[in-house]
Structures are given as C-alpha cells and as structure tokens.
Design brief:
The complex is a heterodimer of chains A (about 260) and B (about 375). In chain A, about 40% of the residues lie in helices and about 25% in strands. Chain A has about 260 residues and is of the alpha/beta class. In chain A, the strands form two sheets. Chain A has a six-stranded mixed β-sheet, sandwiched between helices. In chain A, strands 2-1-4-5 form a four-stranded antiparallel β-sheet, with helices on one face. In chain A, helix 4 runs parallel beside helix 6, helix 5 packs across helix 6 and helix 6 packs parallel to helix 7. The relative contact order of chain A is 0.17. Chain B folds into two domains: about 40 residues, no CATH class; about 230 residues, MetI-like fold (Orthogonal Bundle), CATH 1.10.3720.10. In chain B, about 70% of the residues lie in helices and about 0% in strands. Chain B contains 16 helices and no strands. In chain B, helix 8 crosses helix 14 and helix 12 runs antiparallel to helix 13. The chains are: A alpha/beta (about 260), B mainly alpha (about 375).
Chain lengths: ~260, ~375
C-alpha cells in the first residue's frame, strides 16, 4: 500500500461497477494548498466511497482540518482536483453552493447562531436554502432534534445549553439539510470530558445508518469502532492510511509510530 | 469539615451530605446602605459631602429662576421686563403655536396635527416590543406614512387641500421631519456602506471607503452647503430639488457615513465561525449577512447607533444655516420679537429648546437600553 490511497483503489477494483467515478463521495487528486509561502497541503490524494467512514488524525498543524475544509470550500485549494458527489469544486459559485447543500459540517466550536433558538438554528437553512415551508422545516428539525435526544431544548438559545448539547444541535442542524456527506472537524476537542461520549454516541449512530463521514478527531476508540480507514497526516501530506485494525496494531511509517506512541498511553 | 480534620489526613470519604446553608446575612436598611455606598472611606465621605454642597449651591438658584421668581401669567412682555430674576413663561405660551408649526398657515394646522398624531401612533406601534403585527406597522410607517405626510403637508389642489410650499414649513414639524428622514435613511445606507467597505470587490470597496472618509472628513455645515448648492448641478436641467429636500439629502448622507463605521465595528466583532457556520449550511452572501451577521452585529452596536441618532437629532439645528426654519430657529426668531423683549426672554426660550431636545434624546437612550436588556435576557450568555 502506498500512502496516497492506492489501497482503496485495489480494494475497490474487485467490483467492476465500483470503478466509475459516481461511486465516490469525495475525490481529492493531487491537492496542494499554500498559506502565503507556507505549503499546508502537499499532493493530497484521497478517495472516499459512498457510505465510507474515514477518520483523519495527525499532530496539530498537519493540515487535516485544512483538508476537510477544502471539501466544502471553506478553504480554497490551489492545485489539483476535488470532486464532491460528482461536482468538481472550482471558483464557480453555483458549484460551491451545490456542494455545500450536500455536505454537512460540524466544527470544534459548534458555530451555532447564538441569536436564534435551537429550532431556528435547525430550520434556517432548509427554509432559506431549500425553500421549504416553515412548517415542514420545523417538523424535520424536531425529528432530528429527537434523534440527537434534545427535543425538549428546541426553544432555548445555544448559550443556555451545555457544550455537548450544542454539538448535538450542530449535528442536527447539518442533518436537517439532508446531507450526503458529513464532515467533522474535531467535534469533541472543545468539550468537557464528561460530554464527549454523548457526542460520539450520536456520531456512531449516524455512522451505523450509512452516512459518508470524514472525521478529524483524536478519539481513537471512535476510530476503532466505526472507521473503515484511518488516515494519518503529518506536515501537510498523507503519511499512512489503513484499516483501523492494521493502523493501530501495525503502523508502518516511523512518524505514525511516533504519533501513536504520543497519544496512546 | 473544619481545618482541624485536615491535619495528617490523605484519604477522605464523605459519609454525610454537606448541609445547604443560607448566605451570610447582609446588612440592610438605609443606614447600612449609606455607610456602604456614601461613606465607605474618608475619600468617599469627602466626595459625598462635596457633592451635597454643590447641589445645595446650585438647586435653590435654579428653583428660584425656573419656578418661584418666574413670571407665569402675562399678556405681554411688560411684566417680564419688570421682573429680572426669573423665567418669562408667558412668552412660551404665547409663541407655542409658532414653535410647533413655524409659519405654516394657521387655518391648515390640523394637517400637521394629523400627520404628527398618525406618525406618533405608528412609531409607538413599531417600537413597542409586545405589540401585535409589527410588520404591518413597519409597512404602514415606511411606505404609507411618508406618502400620506407628503400629500397632507404639502397639499394638492386636486384633493381640495390648499398647497403649502415647503418654505412655509417650520418649527418642531421641520425638526422632527429632518431627524426622522435622517434616522430612517442613515441606518440602511450605513449598513450598505459598511458591507461595501468590507467587500472584497475592489471597486465597490474603493467607492464606499472613499465616500465614508470624505464625508466624515468634512464639517456638517459644509455638507449642508454642498447639498444646497451642488445637488441641483447633479440633476437634469430644469429639475430643481426642493429647498427642504436638499438638506434632507445632506443630513442622511452625512449620518450614513458615521453609521457605516459603527456598523462595520459590529461586523468586525463577529467571529469567523459565524461566517463558516452559515457557509457550511449553504447560505449565500446576502442571506448570511441578513440572517446571521447583521442581526448580531447591529445588536452589538446599539449604543453606538443610538448615539449617532442622538447626534443627528441635535445636528438638525444646523439646517437653519441654509435657510430652513427649524425649531431652534423659531425660538431665536421669537425671542427677538420686540413685544417680548426682557432680560430673561432669550434664556427662557433656550431652556425650553434644551428641554425639548433633551426629552427626545433621553427617550431614545432609554428605549435603546430597554432593547439591549431584552436582547441580553433572550440569549443569556
């Protein structure tokens, strides 16, 4: 296996139908990005099949957040191709909107809208982006708030909820747009320890329902439990990628071993 | 658990729950309050005494001038001329109608009254937080009311209302008109300018930044003169803007430049995560601004916005220099009336004017504090 994702290619090659591009939810090919002169992403290649769960880990500053933020164009890549759900990301604003409608994202700091109630946070995008009638949007919002187990908080404001509850609202807010792909950017890093589990449980149940997920996280228990592949990034490049089993029990690259040695005590 | 039990103890296990206790009793009553707040130390005691001395020195003089030594009833300035030590209130009663309507023809005053009553009712409906159907109020106030006011105040032969040209408008009517137009237009214009100044499009950015910096860098009086003399030059030939319209445009543009910077300050305080959260659910630029950024940014800078409204309200007194007969100008004209000349007539007029401006400005300030309190209570964080 090469670190650029060839493992997937060969694994997928077993079924001929899977070779068409439409089977991939996300494809990154030769992606580069610079912040000024600083080279943050270096030749990143990653293909994510529909329904696949990818966990991305790596030391801070390794480019993992930048990479997933490129997938919904919160960051712009400068070289290479990114195709999301069959749409290639370019400067075309319509394509960016198209991709963002299909891709949900949860942030480390939730980024809920503090001036709106929990219910309004969830109905805002369906109403304004999907042009859904308010009543239908509220019905769907309540469905997902029930799913993340906080329907009773619907009329409160984000500031009145705990961190774990806010992150679950953020997940529900994304789900209300009925996304095909979910991106998680360190969703549990800003939480108090006792609230990590409730968020991870929500993510696990989402994974079990077949959602395509890319998660930047240091929760290795979560990676073992749900990930199809673990991607290890360092210094802007994908260093190693493998099934969680192999990744944890048999890391091959020196940098992976060093990193795992530091986070698994 | 007292300190004694800490001694040489490394392991501890609570066996009985710690009892809930009320907070220690606070000293209550006026004496305790005064001791805590007025005489908490030698410096505070000294300041309290100095303040009391100052009030004792000032208040009796004011009370004498405004109330006890003032003239309350008279038919002409005679009595006021004889009484040098107090205010000349009959002057205000005699001129009240002139202050309110300016030179507007007396037989048509009901038109001004009607506009003011309707306007006041709509403003109360619009600003009263608990009122039903405030969007209807907004529609009436911003669309129907301006048309109604214009038709009523100016008149039209077609409707059988004699035409009253704007050079006959004056007094409180004009002050309120200029302020209201300035307030209503400066906020949306300011928001657009602020968005433009933060825009990544270089031409939009340059135009907005240039406008803001030029208008803020020029005295208001010059803006008024420029609006008065230069506005006609920008319009097609033969189309002379009304002499009252010119300072209205000048006031609104001047206030908008200041408003833009206040609004921009609020927008800069918005964390990047709010833009990203909005982008991640697929909201576009205008939706993000209208639904996410502006509601929060404007709420944050309410004190600055209201501060600008208050300045604007008082700055309307400057429109007098381009020949507009505003409230302050009617006061000035009135105290120069030889019938009412007395040593205290002008002071009485100016105190009345000051009280008028203060009531409106203080009202705006209190209202904005109420709005801020409500926004804080709603969010609680």
């Amino acid at each position: 296996m090469k670190p650029d994702g060839t493992l997937t290619m060969s694994a997928v090659a077993a079924s001929p139908a899977a070779r068409t591009g439409s089977d991939y939810a996300v494809e990154l090919a030769g992606v580069h990005k610079w912040y000024g002169a600083f080279h943050v992403l270096r030749d990143v290649n990653l293909r994510v099949r529909k329904g696949e769960k990818i966990v991305i880990c790596g030391p801070s500053g390794s480019g993992k957040s930048t990479m997933i933020r490129c997938i919904n164009r919160l960051e712009e890549h400068q070289k290479g191709n990114i195709v999301v759900n069959g749409t290639e990301l370019t400067n075309d604003l319509r394509r960016i909107d198209e991709v963002r409608r299909e891709v949900g994202m949860c942030f480390q700091h939730f980024n809920l809208f503090p001036h709106l109630t929990i219910l309004e946070n969830c109905t805002l995008a369906p109403i304004w982006v999907r042009k859904m009638p308010k009543k239908d949007a509220e019905e769907i919002a309540m469905k997902y708030l029930t799913r993340v187990r906080i329907p009773e908080q619907a009329n409160k404001y984000p500031g009145q909820l705990s961190g774990g509850q806010q992150q679950r609202v953020a997940i529900a807010r994304s789900l209300c747009m009925n996304p095909k792909i979910m991106l998680f950017d360190e969703p549990t890093s800003a939480l108090d320890p006792e609230m990590v589990k409730e968020v991870l449980d929500t993510m696990v149940s989402l994974a079990n329902e077949g959602m395509t997920m890319l998660c930047v996280t240091h929760e290795m228990g979560f990676a073992r439990q749900v990930a199809d592949r673990v991607v290890f990034m360092d210094a802007g490049e994908i260093v190693e990628m493998n099934t969680p089993d192999q990744f944890f029990s048999n890391p091959r690259h020196e940098r992976t071993r060093l990193f795992l040695g530091q986070i698994l005590h | 658990m007292s300190d004694a039990t800490y001694a040489n103890q490394t392991a501890y296990l609570r066996t009985t729950p710690a009892p809930a206790e009320p907070p220690p009793a606070l000293a209550q009553g006026p004496v305790a309050w005064a001791r805590q707040n007025l005489f908490s130390g030698p410096v505070s005691a000294l300041l309290t005494l100095a303040s009391i001395a100052f009030l004792v020195w000032v208040i009796p003089g004011l009370v004498r001038f405004l109330i006890t030594d003032a003239v309350w009833h008279a038919d002409s300035g005679e009595v006021c001329r004889a009484n040098q030590g107090g205010a000349c209130w009959p002057f205000i009663w005699a001129k009240a109608s002139f202050f309110w309507y300016g030179p507007y023809p007396e037989s048509q005053h009901w038109r001004v009254d009607l506009v003011e009553v309707v306007g006041a009712a709509l403003i109360v409906w619009l600003l009263w937080q608990g009122a039903p159907k405030r969007n209807v109020a907004a529609l009436l106030f911003f669309v129907a009311f301006p048309i109604l006011s214009f038709v009523l105040l100016r008149g039209s032969d077609w409707l059988g209302l004699p035409v009253v040209t704007t050079d006959l408008w004056g007094g409180v009517l004009v002050t309120l008109l200029v302020s209201l137009v300035g307030i209503v237009f400066s906020l949306p214009l300011g928001v657009l300018l602020a968005l433009g100044r933060r825009s990544k499009l270089p031409i939009v950015n340059a135009i907005c930044t240039g406008f803001i910096e030029i208008v803020r860098g020029v005295p208001f009086i010059i803006v008024l003169f420029m609006a008065n003399f230069m506005l006609p030059l920008f319009l097609p030939e033969g189309w002379t803007p009304d002499r009252l319209l010119r300072p209205l445009v000048g006031t609104a543009l001047f206030a908008a430049a200041y408003m833009a910077e206040v609004v921009r300050g609020g927008m800069q305080a918005m964390p990047k995560g709010q833009y990203e959260g909005a982008a991640s659910v697929g909201l576009g630029y205008w939706q993000t601004m209208r639904l996410i950024i502006l509601p929060q940014a404007l709420a944050l800078v309410i004190p600055g916005i209201v501060s600008n409204f208050i300045s604007l309200f008082k700055d309307t007194t400057l429109v007098a220099i381009v020949g507009i007969f505003d409230f302050l100008r009617t006061i000035e004209t009135a105290y120069n009336d030889p019938n009412w000349t007395s040593p205290t007539t002008s002071a009485t007029g100016l105190i009345t004017a000051a009280a008028f401006y203060w009531v409106f400005c203080f009202g705006m300030s209190r209202y904005s504090q109420g709005v801020e309190r409500r926004l804080r209570a709603g969010r609680r964080h």
